[in-house]
Input
Amino acid sequence: MSSEKNFFLNGEYKVQDWQKIAKIIFDLKKVQSSNKNYIKIDYSQAKIDKAIKIIIDEYNENGNFGFDPYSAGLFKAEIPKFIKIEDASIINEIVQKRIENDKSNKSFLRYLNYRFIHFFQYGFNVLSFASKILARKQNKNFQRQIIFQDVLNSCYTMGIQAIPIIIFLSMAIGIIISLQSAKQLAAFGAQLYSIDLVILSFFKEMSIFVAIIVLAARSGSSVISKIGIMRISDEWDALKILGIKPEQFLLKPKIVAFTVLFPFLAYIACASGIFGGYIGLKVLLQINGAVFWNVLSNVYFSTFTIILIKGPIIGLAIGLICTYEIKLVSINSESIVSSITRGVVYSIFTAILIDMLFNIVLIWM
Amino acid sequence: MNELIRVENLVSNRHKDLNWNLLQNEVHGIIGPSGEGKSYFLKILLNLFPYSSGKILNGSGEPLDLEKTKIGMQFQSNALINSLTIGENIMMPLFLLYDYNKDLAKQIAKKYMVQVRLSPDVFDYYPLECSGGMQKRAALARTLVLEPEVLFLDEPTAGLDCQVLEIFDELLASLKNIAIVMITHDLSRLAKIANRVSVLIEGRFVTGTFEELQKSDNIRVRKFLESYVRTIATF
Output
């Protein structure tokens, strides 16, 4: 009895169906490794293009894929339905196992569980990174001279240059809030309270949201890309070899800049948003400007200073996450892209989470 | 001559069993086919890449401490910080590590620029505004500023024209009391200046003078050197 078994291929396979063939070969290789029987593909009953024939011949002759199975997207390809094989039970077993694995991986609870654990692990890694980088110094003069200068430079590029976009965004949001709130409150005859709504919402929350988005998306991504490229192009290693700790020289000033900048940008967002709200209410709804100013001048000091309490902590969190992502950049340029994406998303998410916790604590107090 | 660095039975992702040593004040070339892991080896010595097993020792037989044995490296890509000027790149180590006064550091940097045949006029130029040869010399100056005992040069002559290569030869000849390790494909240049050469082939080093290597028992080493000789003969 021949030790060879044949897998009979049926149907029609065009050039673009190579992934289906790749998946079949992958399954056959699995069977081969478990049963030590070399299963060749018999395509005499199938209609195949030349490219598919080359792939199958390569496999039949050498038992090799001839290509990387992962880049073929094997795990996403579907197995063709009309296949006749000698030893169907083995293939069915493999297919069945894959279907079950796919189902369990797609289980929502399992996915949530994985994400939860990953988030906490990530948070722990960031805190560990923070303790190392913020505690140590190169030497005391280095910390005094260079970091201050670099913090100023970073504040300029990350903060001052972001002011126009913050002003524009905040004004637009201010106009939106003022119009929407005035419209909704008019139904209750309380249109005037839209002034309070605009002013208080910007002092307490909206300015912080705008600053989070601009700082994380604009400044965070630029920091990760700029310093991430230094990691790829040996500049980071060159600093290490010279005895200069790149984390102290490059990352620490950025973290300090994020922490210092956030309240500053949030106040600018607040002022712009309130001004936008004023435009919306005064110009578009003809509400009395003096009333607007009266409400603004009666804002409590605690409301005014809430940005100073939340701001530095949120800024620090964004800075730590963005600089931690720089450390994760590896030697290829693709890793920069994933670091930027992760850095921006995680820092926005964490910043909003911290804001939520602050709200819970402050309201409870 | 005393040993400065000794590598014993080093195994890594790219190497099988490396045994290598560097003597004081020697010029030591590392050559070999592309992709064998020559630059990787230097980065292992500099603690930038990990290795699985083996020992990296200093001249006293103790583990190599990079803070005690001063090693400088000039990367193939030069690795100048693009956001700093040429002068700032060179004076940065003095300023950051040893707290030099800024004006003093500037003066010293300009002296080093003269030593590497770089005009002090380019002090305020950014690296991207300078030619490849100027960047290489600036990177070398930045390394020399810290007075290293060992100097690693990764492809220092790549992309340079013959005039700049002459300057480079003079530069290397002028460096005293420094052991130089040079990775290069420019074997004719290496043959003139190197005391010893190590050929990295199949994850192992074969070390000796050029003459010894040309008569080596290792067929791949002989073939590698013969192919080079044929290339320059054709030219």
